[in-house]
Every structure is written in C-alpha cells, then in structure tokens.
C-alpha cells in the first residue's frame, strides 16, 4: 500500500528546499591553522587552558587515528573527505569566553533569537511554566558561548557547564569518566573526535538528585570550512535523574561540513538519563550539493543496577547520517530504550539505528524505529541486539517500520540479533499483541481495528517520550510524530 | 585492497595445491574453472570480517582440506547405498551419488518416468552438452566463495529436464562413505519447463566420525506456471562440514516450495539464492534445524523479487540444544520495478540449554514504494506456561518439551506436500528428540 496523501504532504513540508535555518551569521572568527597536526591539537588544548594529561590524551588519540581507516560498511556513499582541508577550531574572535550574556557578541545572540533558543533566563521564566524551564548550553562552532541557569543548578548540586570548563574545574571527575564508554580507540570518527574535540556539555547529577529542569545543548555550525567536534559527557550518580536535549542546525552552503561528535552517558545504580535529539543539520540542496556529514558516536552505559537510559531522536537533517546511539546494559535489571524517527528527503542518506548490549541479569530493552524515505534518499535502519552468556532473563522488543514515498528512494533494514543465553527472549517485530495484550484488547473492544490499535499504542508510546521535549524543540518533532505510517513496508 | 598482502592460510594453500593437481583431470572447460578459482583465491576463505560470513567464519572452521574423493568402485557404491536410510519409505526415482560421484548403474535410463530426462554432468562437461549454457541461472551467486569453490572443483553431477506433470518424485541421494575424510563437489541442474511440475527430494548422508567436506550446488530453472516441490534433508555424519547452495530462477505464475531440514553435520551452511523472474509467482522457502552438541548451522537466504505481484514466504525454525550455534541470515531485495511485492520472512529460534547461541540477521532492501515486506525474528526458551500446562496434565518434563519442540518445528515442515516425505521428516524430528532424552 502506498503512503497516504497526508503523510506525503507532511514530508514535503520538511523537504530539503524548505530548510529554515540556513542563514549565516557574520561574526569575526578566530581559527586554528587549517588542517590536522600535533600543532593544531596543541593549539586547541592551549586555547582551552587544558591540563597536561588532557593534551596527552588528545595526542595519543591522534597517533592512534593516523593508523586507522575510515569505515565503509555503512550504506552511504560520499566523496573522500580531505581531513587536512578543515579548520578544527573556530571561535568568535571577540571574547571567546564570555562571562555573562552581556559580553556575548550581539550578532550571536541574534542568531539564537532567530533560531528560537532562549538564552536569557528571565525570558524563559516569563514565557513558560516554571517546571518546564530549560537550561541551555549554546555551542557556536567550536566554543560554548552561553550556559544558562548554571547557578540555580549548582544549588541543587548539578554541574552543567561546557566540557572545556569542566576539564579545568572538575578535572578528577572528568578524568574518571571520560572515554570509559566510548574508548579513544573505539572507531575512526570517535578517535578523531578524541584528538580534536573542542566543546560540548558536561553534566554531573549527584546521588539522589532529580535535576530540577531540563538541560539542553544547542549546536550551531556557522563558520565555513570548519568541522564541529563536540564531546558530551553526562553522569547520573546513584538514584538521580536527568533529562537532556540537543538540537542542531547549520547554514546553507555548497560545501559539505563534517560533524563528528561523541556522546557518553553513564547511569549508576537506580539512575535514569533521558537523552533526546532533534537533529536538523542542513541536509544539502535537492541535487545533493552541500550539507552536513553527521558521523556521530553516541553510547550510554547503564553501569549500575536498575539504571535506565532512553535515547529519543528525531532526525530530519544532514546530508549523511551515520549514528547508532547505543546502550550497554551492564547493571542487573537495567533498561535501555531507543525511539527514533528518521525522515530523509532529497539526496539524503541515513544509516542509523541502535545497539542494545545485554550483559547484566534481567536487563530489558525496547527499540521503536520509524524511517521515512522520500525523494531520492536512502534510509537504512541498522541495529544490534545481543545477549551475552550471563544476561539471564534479558528481554528485547524491537519494532522498525519504514515507509517509502516515491520509487526513487530506498528503505533498508539490517538488524542483527545475537543471543548467547537461553533465557533471553528477543522479539524483532514479532506479533503486535506482544506490545501489550491488555491495551490491544481495550482498543479493539472500543471498535478500533488491530492496525489502528497498534498504531495508536506505538505512536502513543513515542509521543509519550517526545512530548517531554521542551517547547523550543517540540514543534518540529510533534509535526513528524503526527505522520501516519499507513502503508508501512515493514 | 591493493595495500593488503594476502597471507594464505594452510587450508587456502592446500586448496590451491589441490586445484593445481586436479585441474587437468577434471572434465570440461578448464578455463572457466581456473577463472572461478582465481576469483576465489583473490579473496581467500571468507572470515568473520566478511559481512556474509560474519557468523560462519570459514577461515577458522576449515583448517584442513580433505583430499578430493575418487570414483568409488561398483561394490563400494552398492555397499554405501545399502546403508543409506534417507526417505527410505518414499517411492521415488533414485538418482544416487556416492562420494560425490553419480552412480549411473543405479539408474535405468531406458525406463525413466515420462517427462524426465537425465544427463550425467561428467559426460556433459566432457562433450560440451548444450544444456551447460543453462548453468548459473543466478548470476550473482558466482560472487560467493563457496559457489566459486564448487565451480572450480565440481567433479560430477546430473542435469535433469522436467517436461509435463511428473508424478513420481525424483530423489537425489548423496552418500559419502569413504573410510577416511574426503572432499566432494557436485553440481545438479534441474530445468523445469513451462507448465511442468515435479517433486524433488534431496538427501545428504555421510559416515559418522569422519571429517568429510561436501560442497554441493543445486541449480534450478523453473518455467512459467511450473510447480516445484523441493525437500532437502541434511543427515550428514557428526564430523562432516557441509556447504551447500541452492540457486533458482523462477518464472511467472509459478509455485516453488523448498525446505531444508538440518539433522546432521558438525558444521553446515546452506545458502539459498532465488530470483523471482516472472509476475504472480509464489515462493516459499522454509528451514527446520535441530542442533545439539557443538554443532554450528547457518541458513543464508537472498530472495530477489524481480517482477510485479510476487509473493514470498520464508520461515526458518531452529532448535538449539547444548552448546550449539544457529545462524539465520536472510535478505529480501525489492527493486523499484517490483511493485505489489508481498514478502514475509520469519526466523524463530528455541534455546533449550544454557550454552547455546543464535544469531539472526533478517534484512530488507526495498526500493519500491507499493509493497508489503515484513520480517521478524524471535529467540528464546520454551514457554514456561505451556510447559506447566502439559506437566500439570501428567507429562514428564522431557515429554512436554518434546511435544512443544515438535509443534515448533512442525510449523515449518507441514508445508511439505508429499505425504511420505513429510512423514519421514516428522520421524527425523522424533528420533532427534528421542536421542536427546
């Protein structure tokens, strides 16, 4: 069954030529010399005022990276990237480390205003209910230009600051956790990131603390010829809770720009981390010219027992997406969740999915992924669910639907399901009744067909998570969620 | 890969030597063999970093190459066939092979059922038979290293032509009974003409305790409106490493059912490559595997929907006991012109004991927007509630388990149309379960 008209219209409304965030900001920038070398890494490290161990860490990563090969297993194709034709550091020349918003270049403030990102605390207060407040870390090319609500969060014991600041102020904490989820040697792009990462957010939530507000980071690539390499590290200590959101946009340009981020999440005993992404990098034009290469390594470690990590992503941007937010379910009874909606238009190529690695006892995971391909795009779901020998009682439920609009695009599914434990129960898109027979029964009893009931339950589930996105991010996401997957090809 | 120097493993070197000494003795066009071997050796034995062999690392599993089997004497062949038990109760035209060589004395060429023609492959290769042009109906299969090895070494086989509705099943019986380990490579081509129908039984047996290495390829061309029922039984010996490929190209409005039942071999890999080449065709490919000890069994499947309105159903059931490993890799390809495709692929695995493992990779590759394709994979242990129900009614635990396993595998087997063949498969399941208890 082909896609319904409503869906086609909705996908059209976010087609590549409708990109709204393609404007450029005129700010004088200071850049590192073009290309990648030890000197550039020393330059970045010095700019950030890093301790010696951090520099050494970067240099080791760089040495390692020189020996590595770019991965080519994903279902994406692009011209070879010249890693020496990129600026690895670009920061506003005028006061790259502003102490307060008043010191931030007004042009940059205007940019965030245009993007709809609130950087002034009182504005947020005036606009939205207090419990929906969002603290924002705004990253502009290579540096964080503003972080809001830092003081108030500090009162609750929550550390929320740019990672470069955290390396200076809490070196022990950073050192204890950095690279423990995504090791320096993990993969080509993660190693590159380890060598040259410039900014990103650092979050630490102390034991028993429920973070009083949503945290978020807004990434903006602005400068030409640059790559953005941010690094995010979130630690939820025992019994704590934090919800974190990230958004990203970039100007329209004919060139391709590289974004290679690393995100590490660590949840200790009974802790919960929700990580949501609205990815809206510039996707290139209808002919595939320009756009961001989004090569990202995101991984969460449910290190403690009863810990929970949830990834939610709404992906509409980027020329090429290569990302697999994963959960390592190490702690007993820990839970990993992945909810994704990826819409590709124009000439976009998406190869995305998740990995759920069950190591601990009674660990559970759920994967709900929806891919919609239109235009001449390629949309691939690639996912791994594995249970190791000791993962007694592991459970997984996976449901991945994809929808094609037109016959020049492609939708592909590449799931890997590996079980080494007889008590593990894995279901990949198994019977719909397995979602919850009670819910199905309830819906059907009220006259809904099985498909309608399934759609309602699955969508309701995704909605449930996405509705927790703050207003600023939610508009786009809600629009996508309402896309019906009628005519899904499985 | 210019910057990588290939280091040959001992097995690869042994294969190269074996090819060197055998190539002038093997029948037929030496050039095409050399070409296939060249293609194989440019990449060597596939290992776990080769995506299609991620879960079946042939470089690790195939450490030593057994010598290629000689033609058995008439006495040896007779003795070997006497021992063969597969589909013993099914009355069928027997086409037997011993140690990878066609036993032509066993076939009465003057009294073949109507509509059946059989040409021994060895002769056909030697005198350039016209049907040879029909080999390799699935062109992309020749990119597969197992297939390439078969093309390089194929020593014997048959070509069968089916015209009209043939009632008598044709039983291709492969028995390897050499006293010491041997490698074999057979190739069978079956051409089923338009409107023709046939039931093909295929059984593979070998002696226990010997490291035999069969590599069998069966190729089929099924014409428009044809009906093919194919039942394959792997009852290889407990040390055998069995590689097999089934490649078929199916015309329009046809019905094609194939099942592979794995009840033997230390290591096996069965590859099915199918192209649906005409509209409104129905394909069903099933698998039922019973694994125990440290057995490793891989079912790999690629179905290409190359025409409108085709339907394909794939159902693979794997029961894993002890420390055995099951692998299912399936892929449905729907190019943009194959609208209205209806494809459904399902793999279900039961893990009966702690040490077992199952790897599932059900893939979809879809370029058409008006199709229905679904895939599913499940993996887990027996349902405790069902066990409890049966035990509450007085069944001992083992019996209750056996009953549930029978029902589980039965779902894949019940599609076998030939009643006595289906009975034989059910018996195979029962005796596997009995041996377990």
Quantity of strands of chain A, as a count: 24
Instruction: Summarize the amount of helix of chain A as a percent range.
Output: 10-25%
Which chain pair shows the most residues in contact? A-B, 35 and 36 residues
Q: Estimate the strand proportion of chain A.
A: 25-35%
Give the helix proportion of chain B (percent range): 10-25%
Structural class based on helices, strands and sheet pairing of chain A: alpha/beta
Strands side by side in the biggest sheet of chain A: 4-3-7-9-12-14-17-20-22-24
Low-confidence stretches of chain B: none
Tell me the number of structural domains of chain B.
1
Largest sheet of chain A: 10 strands, mixed
**Number of contiguous helices of chain B:** 9
The mean pLDDT of chain B is: 94
Outline the biggest β-sheet of chain B: 10 strands, mixed
* Number of DSSP strand runs of chain B: 19
Which strand order does the major sheet of chain B show? 2-1-5-7-9-11-13-15-17-19
In whole angstroms, the N-to-C terminal distance of chain B is: 51 Å
Q: Tally the helices of chain A.
A: 12
Mean pLDDT of chain A: 82
Distance between the termini of chain A: 11 Å
Radius of gyration of chain A: 22 Å
């Amino acid at each position: 069954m082909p896609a319904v008209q409503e869906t086609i219209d909705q996908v059209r409304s976010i087609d590549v030529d409708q990109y709204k965030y393609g404007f450029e900001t005129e700010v004088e920038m200071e850049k590192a010399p073009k290309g990648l070398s030890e000197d550039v890494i020393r330059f970045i490290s010095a700019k950030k005022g890093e301790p010696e161990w951090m520099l050494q860490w970067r240099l080791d990563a760089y040495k390692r990276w020189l020996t590595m090969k770019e991965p080519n297993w994903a279902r994406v194709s692009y011209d070879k990237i010249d890693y020496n034709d990129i600026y690895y550091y670009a920061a506003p020349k005028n006061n790259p480390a502003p102490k307060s918003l008043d010191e931030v270049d007004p042009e940059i403030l205007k940019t965030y205003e245009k993007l709809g990102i609130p950087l002034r605390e009182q504005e947020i207060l005036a606009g939205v209910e207090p419990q929906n407040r969002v603290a924002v870390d705004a990253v502009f090319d290579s540096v964080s230009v503003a972080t809001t609500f830092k003081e108030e969060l500090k009162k609750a014991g929550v550390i929320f600051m740019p990672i470069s600041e955290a390396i200076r102020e809490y070196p022990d904490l950073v050192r204890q956790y950095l690279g423990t989820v995504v090791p320096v040697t993990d993969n080509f792009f993660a190693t590159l990131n380890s060598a040259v990462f410039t900014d990103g957010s650092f979050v630490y939530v102390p034991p028993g603390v429920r973070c009083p507000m949503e945290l978020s980071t807004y990434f903006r690539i602005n400068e030409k010829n640059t790559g953005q390499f941010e690094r995010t590290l979130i630690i939820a200590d025992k019994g704590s809770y934090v919800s974190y959101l990230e958004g990203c946009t970039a100007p329209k340009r004919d060139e391709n720009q590289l974004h290679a981020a690393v995100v590490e999440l660590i949840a200790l005993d009974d802790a919960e981390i929700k990580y949501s992404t609205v990815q809206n990098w510039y996707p290139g034009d209808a002919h595939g010219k320009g756009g961001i290469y989004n090569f990202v390594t995101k991984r969460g470690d449910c290190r403690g027992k009863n810990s929970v990590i949830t990834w939610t992503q709404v992906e509409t941007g980027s020329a090429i997406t290569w990302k697999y937010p994963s959960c390592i379910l190490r702690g007993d009874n820990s839970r990993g969740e992945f909810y994704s909606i990826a819409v590709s238009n124009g000439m976009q190529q998406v190869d995305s999915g998740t990995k759920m690695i069950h190591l601990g006892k009674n660990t559970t995971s759920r994967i709900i992924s929806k891919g919609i391909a239109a235009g001449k795009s390629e949309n691939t779901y690639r996912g791994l669910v594995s249970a190791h020998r000791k993962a007694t009682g592991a459970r997984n439920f996976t449901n991945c639907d994809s929808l094609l609009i037109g016959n020049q695009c492609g939708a592909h599914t590449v799931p890997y399901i590996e079980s080494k434990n007889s008590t593990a129960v894995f279901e990949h898109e198994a019977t719909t009744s397995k979602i919850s027979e009670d819910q199905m029964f309830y819906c059907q009893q009220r006259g809904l067909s099985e498909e309608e009931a399934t759609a309602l339950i699955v969508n309701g589930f995704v909605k449930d998570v996405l509705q927790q996105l703050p207003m600023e991010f939610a508009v786009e996401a809600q629009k996508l969620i309402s896309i019906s997957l009628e005519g899904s090809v499985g | 890969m210019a910057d990588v120097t290939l280091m040959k493993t001992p097995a690869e070197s042994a294969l190269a030597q074996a090819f060197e000494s055998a190539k002038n003795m093997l029948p037929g066009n030496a050039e095409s063999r050399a070409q296939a071997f060249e293609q194989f050796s440019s990449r060597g034995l596939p290992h776990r970093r080769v995506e299609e062999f991620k879960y079946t690392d042939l470089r690790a599993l195939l450490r030593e190459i057994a010598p290629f089997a000689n033609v058995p004497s008439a006495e040896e062949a007779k003795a070997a066939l006497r021992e063969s038990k597969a589909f013993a109760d099914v009355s069928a035209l027997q086409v037997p092979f011993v140690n990878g060589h066609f036993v032509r004395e066993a076939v009465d060429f003057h009294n073949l059922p109507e509509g059946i023609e059989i040409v021994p492959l060895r002769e056909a290769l030697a005198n350039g038979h016209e049907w040879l042009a029909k080999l390799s109906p699935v062109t992309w299969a020749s990119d597969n290293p197992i297939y390439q090895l078969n093309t390089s070494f194929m020593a014997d086989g048959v070509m069968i032509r089916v015209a009209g509705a043939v009632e008598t099943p044709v039983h291709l019986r492969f028995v390897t009974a050499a006293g010491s380990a041997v490698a074999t490579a057979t190739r069978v081509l079956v051409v089923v003409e338009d409107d023709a129908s046939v039931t093909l039984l295929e059984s593979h047996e070998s002696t226990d305790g010997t490291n035999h290495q069969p590599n069998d390829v069966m190729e089929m061309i099924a014409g428009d409106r044809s009906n093919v029922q194919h039942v394959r039984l792997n009852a290889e010996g407990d040390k055998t490493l069995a590689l097999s490929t089934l490649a078929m190209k199916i015309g329009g409005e046809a019905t094609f059912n194939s099942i592979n039942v794995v009840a033997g071999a230390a290591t096996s890999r069965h590859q099915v490559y199918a192209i649906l080449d005409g509209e409104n065709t129905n394909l069903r490919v099933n698998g039922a595997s019973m694994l125990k000890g440290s057995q490793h069994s891989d079912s790999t499947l690629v179905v290409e929907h190359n025409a409108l309105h085709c339907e394909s159903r794939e159902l693979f059931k794997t029961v894993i006991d002890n420390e055995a490993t099951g692998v299912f890799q399936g892929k449905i390809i729907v190019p943009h012109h194959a609208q209205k495709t209806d494809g459904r692929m399902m793999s279900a695995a039961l893990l009966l004991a702690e040490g077992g493992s199952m790897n599932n990779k059900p893939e979809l590759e879809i370029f058409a927007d008006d199709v229905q394709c679904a895939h599913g994979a499940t993996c887990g242990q027996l349902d405790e509630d069902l066990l409890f129900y049966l035990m509450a009614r007085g069944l001992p635990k083992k019996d209750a388990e056996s009953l549930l396993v029978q029902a589980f595998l039965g779902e894949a087997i019940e599609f076998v149309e030939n009643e006595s063949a289906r009975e034989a498969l059910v018996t195979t399941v029962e005796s596997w379960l009995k041996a377990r208890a």
